User: Fold this.
Amino acid sequence: MTTDFYRIKRLPPYVFEEVNRLKAAARAKGEDIIDFGMGNPDMDTPPHIIEKMVETVKAPRTNRYSASRGIPGLRKAQANYYERRFGVSLNPDTQVVATLGSKEGFANIAQAITAPGDVILVPNPTYPIHQFGFIISGGVIRDLLAEPGEQFMRHLDSAMRHSVPKPLALILNFPSNPTARVADLDFYREVVNYARRHDLILLSDVAYAEIYFDGNPPPSILQVPGAMDVAVEFSSLSKTYAMPGWRMGFAVGNERLIAALARVKSYLDYGAYTPIQVASAAALNGPQECVDEIRQIYKDRRDVLVESISRAGFEIPSPPATMFAWAPVPEPFREIGSLGFSKLLLEKAGVAVSPGLGFGEYGEGFVRLALVENEQRIRQAARNIKKFMSEAETHLHNVLPLR
Assistant:
């Protein structure tokens, strides 16, 4: 069998794979790698959520097939969360679907709405599924500036006027992975009004809506009057409740789009394991002090990371939200790019970061650092980086061609 498969051919090389391979090789040799690469929360899931999971597993009927769109109690819990947090009323029967994490939700909404050749407007840089879900589904990606504001709207209008066929959907992601940028309701109002005028679907990713540090809680696009006509929003329990491996997320919003997503899902899965869904409802309905505690841990780590690593000579801008910092490659290393810098930092300092190029071509020149190591490990990374930066000329001499 020598034929290349059509959908596989459409996928570009996975930039992170080269760093991941080096990381695995270093660990296999017994090296200690301080890993800021993958956004994989390291905190314990709150006890009351685990206890509900254990309790539910013991009920025999919960080991049967579950509900693809989510059990009623879980969908109702998510609707109550939106009412409590955003003041948005949702019908849990028609406007809420439980997904296997927000990533699966994006992949399946792409399958549900995309015809071959459809144009999808995607921020760049962005979380890879925002692009690849639609590429796999046969869509054509057109990149937009990832920053909210007037320039974004100018780029959006230009893309709408010059794309053939007319774009089908626009992806939004605030707070942003990887840039940590946030958007306000004024920005969302402008986007919603534009989308309604131009019959443009809006797909908003708010997986980090509860991980914020400096100011007001990030809003939902569904708070804007008329947004329900054009928008679906995706969220996840992974970061909010330290539940990444549980794979529980949601899509909420426009009934027609939710129905399309639910129909595709009904052909592909039976939903998450019922005890996971019951425990997820307990997370949403139960005490929320754990969310405040998780947020504070990320804030403390952010402050230590920004202060200690910046002092080591690698300037880290302070992110206002998310569990990530988005930092420019230090000036001496810009010639080798984000991938070259990430590999060198791993090999010479034992510190893993994600190259910005992996989030889109406009991510070049940056790296992403995830707040998934404790404060002691962050300070150790800063010491390693300080030594690495002091030897920059030697490291570059060994990797750059003679000039």
Remarks:
- Residues 314 and 330 are 6 Å apart (CA to CA).
- The mean pLDDT is 93.
- Residues 6-44+290-391 form a domain with the Aspartate Aminotransferase, domain 1 fold (CATH 3.90.1150.10).
- The chain has two domains: 6-44+290-391, 64-285.
